[in-house]
Each structure stands twice: as C-alpha cells, then as structure tokens.
Sequence to fold (300 residues):
Amino acid sequence: MSNDTESRREFLMSGIAASSAAAAAGQGTSPATRKKVLWNEMARHEFPALLQNKPVVIVPIGSIEQHGPHLPVDNDISIPYYIAIRTAEKIDEFPVIVAPPVWLGFTHYNMGYYGTITVRLETFIALLSDVCRSIYANGFERIVLMNGHGGNVAPVHAVADKLAQENIMTLSFPYWAMCETEMRTWSTKDGRGPGHAGEWETSFQMYLRPHLVAMDQREPGKERWPFSDAVMKYAHVPERRRESATGSAGDPFAASAEKGERIFNLCVERLTAMVREYHEKPLLRYMDFGSDAKLLPTLL
Fold:
C-alpha cells in the first residue's frame, strides 16, 4: 500500500480500533479528527450553527448478530458507521454529521447462534422512526439512512415511506447498493454482494479492524435456499434460521485487506458524491403535487 493509504488506514483505526462496542452503541469518539463529525460529541450550543448551511445527517443502521466464528458480532453496524465517518470528514464545505448508530436490528433468524441481539419488526420500525423524528425536530431536514444489515432492508424502506407522510423525507439504502456491481466483478470466489461473513464482509474487517478477525477460525459456508434459482428470482421467502452450519455464507478465505480497502474507498467516494448532491438539491416535500387536496383521515 502507498504511504497515503497506510496513513489513511492508521487514521481510521487510531480512534476506532479500541471502541468496537462503544461505537455500536453510539458512544464512541471519532478518531483523532480535525473536526467534530459525531452527533453525540456535540454540545447543545453547537447545533444551531450547523443548521445555517443545509447540513446532512447520516444515520448508520445495522445489527448485532453472529458472523461466523471469525468476525465480531457488530460487523453490520461497523461498516456503515466507518463509511459515514470517513465521508463526513472528507466534506468541509458544509456540515455532515454522523448520528449515533442504530445498532438494534431485525435479525431473529440469527438467534440460533450466540451473540445475536434482535428486536421485533414493529420495535425496529418504531425505534428508527423516532430517531428520524428527533433529528428532524432538531432542524435537520436532510437525512440519510445507510443500512448495513440485510434483514433491515425492507423495514428501513418502510420507515422511509412512513416518515414521508409526515414530510420527513429521507434517502435510504444499504451501503452495498453503492458498490454491488463492483463486488460481483472484483470477487474472486463468492461472485456476489456482501454475503454474510464471506469474502467481502471479511475483507472490510481485515482492512478496518484486522485485530478483530480470527483468521485461524475462518470457515466457509453456504446458504440453504428451499427453491430453485428460477423461483428465487421473483419469490419472497421470509427470513428463517437459514445460515450454514458454520454461520457463514461465502468464503472468508478469499478475503483480503486490499479488497476491503478498495471497496471501502469506493463506498466513501460514492457516498460523498451523493451527500454533496443531497446538499445542493432543493428539499423534497411530501405535498409537491396535489397540495390543495385534503387527505382522507383514514390515511393519516
């Protein structure tokens, strides 16, 4: 790696490496930053000034769940959290704030293994909705919901649609949507998106937090799907305890820190571009069309 890359990696790890659990709980400190980017590190009197220049708030969303025998259980919240921090630190022309991570996820199907903490679907939707309402009530109208856990994808979209009716308009997506094509193209084994404790998630952790990857405990695994590939292309199958015997889905032996660095930097690049565009565009409003029509009470 180049000196610049190595410096960036050390910068990322300097303050994050020792705060895995705290970061997941939204209580960690940002890594030796030149400026504050974490919501939870702000004093209350600092917020009004941030509102003067169309700030963007990124809410990292994930889960605490088993990730095979070799990865930490905070994998799915750590990745979007670090992508968000690095993005916020890169942008100086307007405020980009990283909200405390929403680490409680919808992941009941991982309860067959130690370490998983899950909440009911209704609880997750209510929790994330109230977090967004609170951010909005503080005056921050540009909110990004960046998710790192597959089981949260549909619920996060539901939250976005639910909040829109309250005129709280968000941008929501899983982080891998920004790089899934490259994940498939650059893969040497799994040939897919992030998987579960396989090639890509292991690569992320080998780059960001190598001290938390138990290299000697890696085991490949394969998800078990009940129907043919043809049916699975269009049929929704509810989540269940479907992981392999190892708790992994994919091949962690194909992972590398170099792959993790490459895909991490791509995510930061694309999130940075998206946040800048979000800052420049006029705010979305729920009542853009049909503004004179009255909503039926049953719709509220």
